[in-house]
């Protein structure tokens, strides 16, 4: 069997890092084989893909050496972040750019474009749509469609469905499996349920970028469960194991202790902020005939509408809905990053602009790079403490980096981090001030199991201190094990506000991998 892609004796080091990312790594994939790379966030999986395509050092200037390398002549790469993928500003132009490079006649392009978008479940009324107006999940589908249009011999897939809803995830993987049947496919993916039966081989890395196992999926998951748990890597049944762990059971047992302490905390906060009439019974947040808009003109059609809603202190809301439904728009509207209309109060105070929420709400963007304002991980973590003039800013910064497992990355530029590490840094900086309202847009995508659980546990601890959490997520296990409320958004309208158990029961949900609840309910 011929070799499709390989590298021997790979040595690589990022500027600012304390050690080598890879030290004499050798890796090869026979033509036609499907390989899944598994390992903790930051172990170098995405970096290896970039080396195997020649992007490192060809397009990304990173010091690298190897004894030999075989880069395929025809390949396609789906990046973790779809915004790094596009060359053109509009959807049809992006697809046409690919087809033009393939020599497709102009009169054949419209049909090829429509078919390619439909293949990944991206059915648009208007193909000449600005890419930047799309949700991240919609962008990811476009990125996948553009790569599939190339019909490459080798596919490099770096978490291609990380930003997609469950239905979109299944749809895209069905497409990839169909078009990749006779291709060489190398996959980095945390959502492994859809790919286990597709791959021939699993390569398991430890946190230092060293291969500790290389075998069939059956053998890896049967014989290396201890290593998977040790390094916090996703594996079938990991949520069930976590739910039965002493850590989660302690969280579960302590949830009943919330009421009195949280109500008192909320009442104290209201008085501190001057809201004498805003006692805990009135809630932390309230919306009435609320709407959010894209662009400056409020005469435009609202992109999110909420008729009447109240949120109490200590709630954990999971915001659910398909890609493009308006979930991120809701968070941006609550944070006053978009124009809004209607009634909006936080702790009894009317909200009219960003200044009215800045001290009370923290926001974690879906794209973590949108939050970074400095040139090093350390300065990013220190920014909030320094801004507030805290005398112990250095000590607090070190503690925050250790808490989020980023202490060894503090000299690196935030853009040099893996997507999972960028996400942890964005969550860490948002949480540094401990605001009363926490808005998070897919905070766990791109994370390994260990860091996912660590972030959720930190948020749960904050919730128990009286903060309210509003989290956009596609992960039904987070809904099941952590949320206290579920908000469902469909076509720009908040349609359901339910208890998690009732929501999951109505959806017929039993375990990870089932249908997206909104697909069943409607």
TrEMBL record:
Residues 7-233, 285-516 form the ABC transporter domain. Pfam families: ABC_tran. It is found in: Cell membrane. Signal peptide: none annotated. It comes from the Bacteria. It is a peripheral membrane protein. The keyword RNA-binding does not apply. InterPro entries: AAA+_ATPase, ABC_transporter-like_ATP-bd, ABC_transporter-like_CS, ABC_transpr_CbiO/EcfA_su, ECF_ABC_transporter_ATP-bd, P-loop_NTPase. SUPFAM superfamilies: P-loop containing nucleoside triphosphate hydrolases. Its main location: membrane. One of its GO terms (molecular function) is ATP binding. Keywords: ATP-binding, Cell membrane, Membrane, Nucleotide-binding, Translocase, Transport. Belongs to the ABC transporter superfamily. This is ATP-binding cassette domain-containing protein. It comes from Paenibacillus radicis (ex Xue et al. 2023). The lineage of its organism: Bacteria, Bacillati, Bacillota, Bacilli, Bacillales.
């Amino acid at each position: 069997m011929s070799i499709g892609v390989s590298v021997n004796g790979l040595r690589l080091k990022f500027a600012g890092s304390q050690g080598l990312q890879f030290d004499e790594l050798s890796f090869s994939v026979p033509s036609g084989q499907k390989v899944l790379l598994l390992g903790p966030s930051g172990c170098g999986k995405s970096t290896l893909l970039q080396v195997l395509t020649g992007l490192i050092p060809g397009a990304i200037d990173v010091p690298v050496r190897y004894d030999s390398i075989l880069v395929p002549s025809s390949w396609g790469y789906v990046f973790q972040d779809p915004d790094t993928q596009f060359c053109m500003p509009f959807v049809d132009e992006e697809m046409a750019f690919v087809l033009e490079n393939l020599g497709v006649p102009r009169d054949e392009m419209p049909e090829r474009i429509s078919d390619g978008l439909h293949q990944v479940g991206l059915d648009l009324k208007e193909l000449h749509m600005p890419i930047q107006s799309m949700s991240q999940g919609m962008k990811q589908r476009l990125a996948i469609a553009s790569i599939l249009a190339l019909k490459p011999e080798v596919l490099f897939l770096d978490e291609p469905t990380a930003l997609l809803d469950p239905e979109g995830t299944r749809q895209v993987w069905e497409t990839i499996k169909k078009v990749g049947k006779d291709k060489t496919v190398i996959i980095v993916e945390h959502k492994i349920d859809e790919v286990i039966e597709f791959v021939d081989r699993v390569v398991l890395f430890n946190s230092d970028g060293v291969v500790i196992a290389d075998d069939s999926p059956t053998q890896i998951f049967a014989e290396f469960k201890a290593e998977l748990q040790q390094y916090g890597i996703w594996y079938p049944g990991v949520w069930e194991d976590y739910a039965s762990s002493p850590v989660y059971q302690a969280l579960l047992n302590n949830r009943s202790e919330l009421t009195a302490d949280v109500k008192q905390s909320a009442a104290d906060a209201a008085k501190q902020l001057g809201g004498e009439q805003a006692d805990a019974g009135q809630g932390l947040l309230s919306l009435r005939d609320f709407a959010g808009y894209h662009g400056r003109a409020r005469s435009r059609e609202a992109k999110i509408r909420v008729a009447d809603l109240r949120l109490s202190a200590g709630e954990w809301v999971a915001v659910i809905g398909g890609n493009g439904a308006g979930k991120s728009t809701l968070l941006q509207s609550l944070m006053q990053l978009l124009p809004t209309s209607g009634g909006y109060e936080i702790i009894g105070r009317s909200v009219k602009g960003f200044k009215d929420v800045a001290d009370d709400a923290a926001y974690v963007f879906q794209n973590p790079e949108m939050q970074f304002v400095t040139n090093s991980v350390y300065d990013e973590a220190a920014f909030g403490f320094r801004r507030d003039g805290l005398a112990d800013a250095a000590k607090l910064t070190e503690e925050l980096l250790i808490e989020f497992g980023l202490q060894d990355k503090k000299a690196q530029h935030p853009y040099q981090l893996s997507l999972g590490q960028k996400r942890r840094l964005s969550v860490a900086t948002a949480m540094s001030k401990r605001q009363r309202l926490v808005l998070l847009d897919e905070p766990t995508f791109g994370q390994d199991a260990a860091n996912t659980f660590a972030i959720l546990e930190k948020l749960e601890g904050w919730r128990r201190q009286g903060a309210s959490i509003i989290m956009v997520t596609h992960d039904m296990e987070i809904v099941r094990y952590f949320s206290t409320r579920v908000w469902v958004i469909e076509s720009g309208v908040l349609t359901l506000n339910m208890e998690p158990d009732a929501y999951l029961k109505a959806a017929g949900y039993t375990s990870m991998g089932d249908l997206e609840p909104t697909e069943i309910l409607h």
